[in-house]
Design goal:
Layout (H helix, E strand, L loop, with lengths): L29 E2 L6 E5 L20 E2 L1 E3 L15 E3 L7 E11 L2 E6 L4 E6 L3 E7 L7 E5 L16 E4 L5 E7 L9 E9 L9 E3 L2 E5 L8 E9 L3 H11 L5 H16 L2 E3 L4 H6 L2 H20 L5 E2 L6 E3 L18 E3 L5 E3 L2 E3 L5 E2 L1 E2 H4 L3 H8 L1 H18 L5 E3 L2 E3 L7 H10 L7 H13 L4 E2 L2 E2 L6 H7 L9 H19 L7 H10 L7 E2 L4 E2 L1 E2 L5 E2 L8 H4 L7 H8 L2 H11 L40 H4 L3 H15 L15 H11 L1 E2 L7 E4 L7 E4 L5 E6 L3 H4 L3 E7 L2 E2 L4 E3 L7 E8 L31
Length: 777
């Protein structure tokens, strides 16, 4: 099925249209799925340490500083943009118009104000550019090893290197500035070749900059540039280039990238995406369907923007082991190299190896939506990514927090690699060093000495305090306690799912008790989550990047107990309605909340879809006995806070976490509990979806109406493989071998799933393999 045409790579490149104040921070450059290289444009952006344009590109800019080989997918802080390439030599930047710019999966093109056209494409570890100089443009190209997204003005030339050899190849080393809590300037090596002869006049290498003048006397004004990169050496950058991009066939590489993207996008096939099916829709539905398909397939595309390959074709990569702890950012101490071949592991009693070391882990974000999707449909890559986390931990001493290159950074609080690994394992990605992960998780949960280099496993508070008090005391973040209880639950779930569970029973029991520690900061008098000092005194709560109303529902593993503590289901529904700006009584018949009301921002007491802690909240209605309310609000969120415009994401994409939320919401499923093998159910937004699972089996999702197109958001009944299905929780085991979910939908609210006997499972240690809580005799 041709699907790449539905991808709009410019979605999420501008500040959200609905008021969160944050940009998606995506880059429209050329990348292959999970590729090391993202070859794209770099514009001025905010030039702040975070802000808009953190992914290197900001749509409102009218100039391009340079093009570079690496970009982060939707980060909140600046990073990457390594190997700055400027196909002009007479200005720091050139202007452009969006009318002269286009992008598709694996390809980017722009015509600059001097009429020079730059086209970019990529393989996993290399980039290929075709530069067609305008008739009046000087055919010069600059490679500036000093500049990157974190060093827009350039590093001192003595810190980088660049050389031009007698064959016309340019190679060198550039440095990435510390990313968002990191301390290490890490190297990126490059090796570049051209298909066009260089002129002696105008060509020079000086102070970290290579200026290259091309001989275009033959009449062809196009120059092709191939670049390989590596974290290890120039030799490995060259090896990557020779292995993946040995020729100058730009159109061939572009076509390969497009085919690879189309294959991956076909992992989830929506019937109406077929050209003939789209053409057959009534006119009033066709434009809306095109919009919704564009949002969906762009979101699915972004879920493959990270983690990203970090090792070279020979398995080599830069170690995370930090030789000097607490080093200042001005220093560039070497770190050793490593190789995937040095880290064998055991799977089902047999020695196994992995092929690729991955980087680019934004785990505070991705554990809530992205990891489960990737493990479900891409278990091979996800297993290698989990093995990568175990290897990083073996090098630095504990699981890292947020991985950029081979650096552990700490932009967020908590300890989230266990959430990611547990989620991946329970959703089917199991070909990694599970015993190593088990040992590391036990240590991070119980040892106050657990640290990756100089960064304690639990960030944003003291594990010793948490073990002693059951909460993180003020003045540290109140929300760190909530992150900790989620991680406790994930580690317990992971340990309980292993064959060694009996040996870990004491630890599992202790962690399940700790997973209820939200109760230590729940004030029954105010019915709110509050801060608490070490002596037990209540204080105002502090919540990282959000507020108490949005963090209130962030620990789905204990929603039933939370709802009971709050006063029962009716009271919980009232609180949820207020959060979503819904009227009391019958909110489904009242006015819809605006996009701004559903994306209030970090200081808002209204719903904030633009940040991850709120992602699962709509499905809390299922536990509160009102699944119809989740079915009502979800399509409104999807319609009013996501669009096909540049500002069409509600906040940072965060390595595909936000996009992953949209994919799940479209399917009508969501992994609300990171380490539970199942999903909360809501309404599929399309009639006819096929999800190809990682084991090759197909899950077919069918509805009798197009929910989004026909405004029929409510579920009347569900069948699984032809048998009536009760409850709004779907255990993964029920669809492990594929199958068919069939829905009958309605345009008016229904009571489907609201019977108390159909309440989904809840609580640390609950049996999530069952669709409902067992009814007591």
């Amino acid at each position: 099925m041709p699907l790449t045409g539905y991808v709009n790579a410019f979605i999420g490149t501008r500040i959200s249209e609905t008021g969160s104040g944050h940009s998606g921070n995506n880059n429209p450059g050329a990348q292959t799925p999970f590729g090391m290289v993202s070859f794209g444009p770099d514009t001025p952006g905010s030039r702040s340490g975070w802000g808009y344009g953190s992914g290197g590109y900001y749509y409102d800019d009218t100039a391009i500083d340079f093009f570079s080989m690496t970009h982060l997918n939707g980060p909140g802080c600046r990073g990457q943009s390594m190997v700055a390439i400027r196909p002009w030599g007479d200005a720091d930047r050139l202007t452009f118009k969006h009318a002269d710019e286009s992008a598709s999966p694996g390809y980017y093109r722009v015509a600059m104000s001097n009429q020079t056209a730059i086209e970019l494409t990529a393989t996993t570890r290399t980039g290929l550019a075709r530069i067609t100089y305008g008739a009046g443009a000087t055919p010069v190209l600059v490679i500036d090893a000093r500049k990157s997204n974190t060093n827009k003005s350039g590093l001192p030339a003595a810190m980088v290197s660049i050389a031009l050899d007698k064959t016309g190849a340019v190679s060198g080393k550039t440095l990435e500035g510390p990313f968002c809590g990191g301390t290490w300037r890490q190297p990126v090596y490059f090796y570049a070749r051209f298909d066009t002869k260089l002129l002696d006049a105008g060509t020079s290498v000086k102070d970290g900059v290579a200026t290259l003048a091309f001989d275009l006397s033959g009449g062809d004004r196009s120059v092709r540039l191939r670049v390989g990169i590596s974290s290890v050496s120039v030799e490995n950058a060259k090896l990557n280039l020779e292995a993946e991009n040995a020729g100058y066939g730009f159109d061939d590489v572009k076509a390969y990238a497009g085919r690879e993207w189309n294959r991956r996008l076909n992992t989830i096939q929506i019937d109406v995406a077929r050209p003939e099916a789209l053409a057959a829709l009534p006119d009033d539905q066709k434009a809306l369907a095109l919009t919704d398909l564009t949002k969906f397939y762009t979101a699915l595309y972004r879920t493959m923007g990270g983690p990203t390959a970090y090792s070279d074709v020979n398995g080599a990569f830069r170690s995370m082991a930090q030789k000097k702890l607490n080093q200042p950012t001005s220093e560039v101490p070497d770190r050793a190299t490593a190789n995937t071949a040095r880290y064998p592991f055991t799977v089902d009693g047999k020695t196994a190896r992995y092929g690729t070391q991955y980087s680019g882990f934004s785990m505070w974000d991705t554990y809530r939506s992205l990891t489960q999707l990737q493990a479900w449909v891409f278990p091979r890559e996800t297993s290698e990514a989990m093995q990568s986390l175990v290897v990083w931990a073996r090098q630095c001493g504990a699981f890292p927090h947020w991985v950029d290159g081979s650096e552990d950074t700490t932009p967020m609080n908590g300890d989230h690699a266990p959430n990611v690994i547990a989620a991946a394992y329970l959703f089917g990605a199991r070909a990694f060093d599970i015993e190593g992960a088990r040992s590391l998780m036990r240590r991070s949960a119980f040892s106050t000495a657990s640290a990756c280099n100089d960064k304690a496993s639990l960030m944003g508070g003291s594990l010793a305090d948490y073990l002693r008090l059951g909460y993180i005391p003020a003045p540290d973040w109140t929300s760190t306690t909530l992150e900790a209880v989620t991680t406790d639950n994930s580690i317990a779930a992971f340990l309980a799912a292993l064959p060694t569970a009996a040996a870990d029973k004491a630890e599992i029991d202790a962690l399940r008790l700790r997973a209820q520690n939200w109760k230590t900061i729940y004030d029954p008098t105010t019915r709110t989550l509050r801060g608490k000092t070490a002596d037990g005194s209540w204080t105002t709560g502090t919540f990282h990047e959000s507020t108490e109303p949005n963090y209130f529902w962030s620990f789905a593993q204990d929603w039933t107990a939370l709802i009971a503590a709050y006063g029962g289901k009716s009271a919980a529904i009232t609180r949820l309605n207020a959060l979503f700006s819904l009227t009391t009584g019958q909110p489904e018949t009242g006015p819809e909340p605006s996009g701004q009301a559903l994306n209030g921002g970090e200081s808002s007491s209204r719903y904030y879809i633009g940040n991850e802690m709120s992602f699962g909240t709509p499905w809390a209605y299922n536990w509160a006995g009102s699944p119809k309310s989740a079915q009502y609000i979800l399509p409104i969120i999807m319609r009013k806070t996501f669009s096909t415009n540049a500002g069409g994401l509600p906040g940072n994409d965060d390595f595909g976490a936000t996009s992953g939320w949209y994919v799940w919401a479209t399917l009508g499923l969501y992994p609300v509990i990171p380490a539970a093998p199942g999903m909360a159910m809501s309404t599929p937004q399309f009639s006819g979806i096929t999800v190809w699972l990682g084991n090759g089996k197909a899950l077919r999702i069918e509805t009798d109406r197009q929910a989004m197109l026909e405004k029929a958001p409510y579920i009347t009944s569900v069948k699984l493989n032809g048998t009536a299905y009760g409850g709004s929780w779907l255990p993964l085991a029920k669809v492990a071998d594929g199958g068919t979910l069939s829905y009958v939908l309605s345009g008016t609210p229904t009571d489907w799933g609201s019977d108390p006997a159909l309440t989904p499972p809840s609580g640390p240690g609950a049996d999530y393999s069952q669709p409902t809580v067992p009814v007591a005799p």
